[in-house]
Amino acid sequence: MQFSFKYENRLIQCKVILRNRKNITIRVDAGGQVTVLVPPGTSEKIIREQVESKARWILKQIDYFNYPAFAPRQFMEGEWFLYLGCEYHLHLEIDSSLTKMEVKLDRDRLVVLTPTANGGIIREALETWYRRQARKKIAERIACYEDRIARVPGRITIKSQKCRWGSCSARGNLNFNWRIVMAPERVVDYVVVHELCHLLELNHSRRFWALLAQVIPDYKEDKEWLQKNAMRMSW
Question: How buried is residue 92: exposed, middle or buried, by Cβ count under 10 Å (0-12/13-18/19+)?
Fold first, then answer.
């Protein structure tokens, strides 16, 4: 199902997908596509009311993606990439004799030693490097905070998640989005502690937020940073 409506003289087009869930969720992807995930049996009237009530937010997200800084990357010389909250410009050192690729930071540059300038291959090398850095950084931050939570997590997994920065299973296994390592370390700490707190409170109750605030009193600032900068952390 698809439908459209006007807000502030702009046409917003939406695609509706049925999913087994309790609530309606609205997503705006990097191409500006608005997708509405709805529980089976939800009436069209309720869907439209929910979506139209979020019209201002939807337009804001669409405009974010249309801003030049969020244009799809080509993985070419000079493009910028975030790492721990700082911007680094991509620099390719091409040597056809190389048998393997290497990625490293050099002052304000993210350097890729590569036998090819193929964008797809460069992207794979960068994602591999980011995943490796994320695993190291998250393990370091968990070790820093787990004593304050008084619970030891189970398996730690680095994933590519579209809509989550982290998650905690009922068995105490933690998953983290590798892109979180693009955020400042204080924001990485917020995501790590958020999931560690779920080891005690597997919900978002008042007790959960109170526990999080005991460890990171200003967590709302970190949460806001993620909301404002999520688009900068997507490829």
Answer: middle
- Residue 62 Rama label (left phi>0; alpha psi -120 to 50; beta): alpha
> Do residues 228 and 62 make contact, with C-beta atoms less than 8 angstroms apart?
no
Helix, strand or coil for residue 196? helix
> 39 with 16: CB under 8 angstroms?
no
Positions of E strands within 108-207: 109-114, 156-159, 166-168, 174-177
Q: What is the mean pLDDT of the chain?
A: 91
Report the alpha-carbon distance of residue 78 to residue 121 in Å, rounded: 17
DSSP track, 73-124: P---TT-EEEETTEEEEEEEEE-TT-SS-EEEEETTEEEEEES---HHHHHH
Query: Which pLDDT tens digit goes with each residue over 132-189?
Result: 999 999 999 999 998 888 788 999 999 987 668 999 999 999 999 999 999 999 999 9
Residue 52 carries which DSSP code?
A: H
Spatial neighbors of 203 by CB under 8 A, at least 6 apart, are none
Token digits of residue 89? 């410009």
